[in-house]
Every structure is written in structure tokens, then in C-alpha cells.
Amino acid sequence: MADTLDSVDVAIVGAGPVGMALALALAGGPYSVLLIDTRQRGAWAADPRALALSHGTRQILERLGAWNGRLATPIETIHVSQRGGFGRTLIDSADYGIPALGYVMRYRDLAATLDQSLATSRQLSNCTVVKILANRDAADITLGDDGEKRRIAARLVVHAEGTPGNDAGVRVYDYRQHAVVAEVRPLAGHGHRAWERFTPDGPVALLPLAKDYSVVFTMPPEKAGQFIELDEQAFLAALRIQFGSRMDFVASGPRASFPLALRVRQQLTVPRQVWIGNAAQSLHPVSGQGFNLGLRDAWELAETLLTRASGDAGDASALTFYAQGRRGDRRGSMAFTDGIVRLFSNDLGPLRVARGLGLLSLDLLPPLRHFVARRMMWGARAWP
After folding, report:
1. CB atoms inside a 10 Å sphere around CB 276
2. Which of 123, 101, 102 is nearest to 42 (CA)?
3. How many other CB atoms sit within 10 Å of the CB of residue 31?
4. Residue 63: how many other CB atoms lie within 10 Å
5. Using an 8 Å Cβ cutoff, are 333 and 380 in contact?
6. What is the CATH number of domain 3-72+104-169+261-350?
7. Total-model pTM
8. How many angstroms from the chain centroid is the CA of residue 220?
């Protein structure tokens, strides 16, 4: 029989960057916080991924005291174009009086910075959530830990554990694409410019990372398998084809691939529980909105708990307020990324012309370009 280990105000399930950011935002406040993770603390040290961080995300991390600019590569300009069609646009940070439109940072570096800021926080590692039973006053969490079971009573359980599952409460749209990711070395340096190149198979993104580019190459699943098997020179040649004479590459690191789908949890809250970050929604990587949206989830949840929960972290009215407040940003971000993927991941002639006209309009009409840029920097809400 499981013994009760502890009682806490907020139990955060998932100690990735979004879960850690929430814990940091609540630190020093009136609530006791416990981080719970299935992995060993520091398991992210071997994570090869890179994250695209918006200007708004930098602002949040600075407020949390968790911004390490030394480890971030600025994106000063973004070049957007389509392969085999006319039209392009260039978004420049100088137009907005900011040092960069966004930044690229390795997942492990961001996680390490957040973890260091939470050095004295309470955490449980190598724990699996077996079940959660909510009642009027608290949620009873049963954990499996090295063959033993523990119980924790929490006023609020925050799910930040990653991609939502395929349960009835999650809507899934399969893009029938895989992302092949790698780091490549450009011949002439990157000049802090990011590239978004739309192809019939899907978007190709180049994100400046230290001296290299982090590549996100989307394509049908069968092609992804073939690209993983290519030798280095063949992979670089395939990448050159996508950019023509614009770019050249001289070296490539290891590659990995993963399937792409839009997964959306329909209901963000139930009594004593709330979902944030990828546990609430996972987006296509085009335009790099997913993590930034998740961090805004954490920031706004912390703000709601600190200002509206009246001492009870699981207060139903506060959770309802949070869910309603996130509706516009979630829907806007999902519609923005999903619309781009659907519009640009094909080779239909009329759509190719429409895309070219759209890109040309962005380039010639500053208000339209500024709308897109602000959405990328701050999401559906205009952050100060």
C-alpha cells in the first residue's frame, strides 16, 4: 500500500523547460511547488535539439532571471521564399528597434540555465505518474518509483510532460510529414540570417546556431527514411538543391527524424488539473512557434495563480480564467502555423502563384509584414 509522502500546493508533472519555467515563476510566492519527472535530473544534457526562441520569449526568460545570452545565437533577419516560384520577403529586426527577431539555443543549454536557477527547488526524478484522482480539496497523485508507490496530495496538478497522448480529449491532425533535423556548416557563414524555404514536400528552415545552421527539413515519411540513410555529401547536395545558388554547405552533423502532427487538447482544465506547453498542444515546427507558445502558457498560468487563486492553487474560477485567457493565443498560433503548412506544402500551379503574390505583398506592404513579424515575436497577444 502506498504511503502519503507529502502535500503540496502545485505539483508540476514534467521537468522540461516549460515545467521548470513555471516552477521558477512561482518560486518565492505563496505556493509550495514540487517538480516530478520520469527522467533522471539532467537527462536533457544529451538532447540534440535546437529551439527557436522569439523576442517575447527572451523577455519572459529575462523576467525569470533565466536568460543566458552567451548561449543564444541572434536572428537579425529572416528570408522567406518558395522553391520554383516567384516572390520573397525579408523581415529585419532593425525595423522594430530590437537587437534580434529571435534567437536559437540548444535545448540542453536552456534546460541547464533553468535548472541552475531552480537549484534549491523540490524535485522528484525517475517517477512515473500511475494515476491521479481529484476530489473537492486536492488531487491525489500515485507515483511509481523504483518498484514502490508514493502518494502526493496536491491542490493543483500541472501537466507539462510533453506531447499529448491519443486519448479522446486530444484532436490529432497528421500532416503526413516527417522532420529531418541536423546541424550543417555553411561555406560563407550565416550572418545571423534565418531562412524559411517552402518546397512542394514541405518547408525547409535554416536557423543560425553558433557557427552553424540548425536544419529542419520536412518531407513525406518515405523520403525522410531515405534522407537519414544518405551519406554526408549526398545529404548536403540534397540541401543545396533546395536553395539553389543562395547557399552552400561544407559539413553536416548527425541526423534524426520525427513525425509531424497537430495535437490539441480540447479542454485545458478539469477540476484540480491543468495542461500547458506541449501537453496542451504540439504544433508543426514551421515558424518556430511551439515552444514560445508553451512558455507563454507557463507565464500566464503563474500570473493567474499569483493574482486570482485566493490562496488555493486549484481554485476553479482561476483555472477557468486562465483557460479563457489562453484561447486567443492558442487558436491564433495554431491557425497561423497550420495555415502556412497547408498553403505551402504542395505544388499546385494556382496556389504557387497565390503564394508568390502573398510573399510579394509582405515585401511591399510594411503593415502586413509587421503583422506577421509581431505574431512571430509575441504570439497572438502584443507583449510589451
Report:
1. 31
2. 123
3. 19
4. 12
5. yes
6. 3.50.50.60
7. 0.90
8. 22
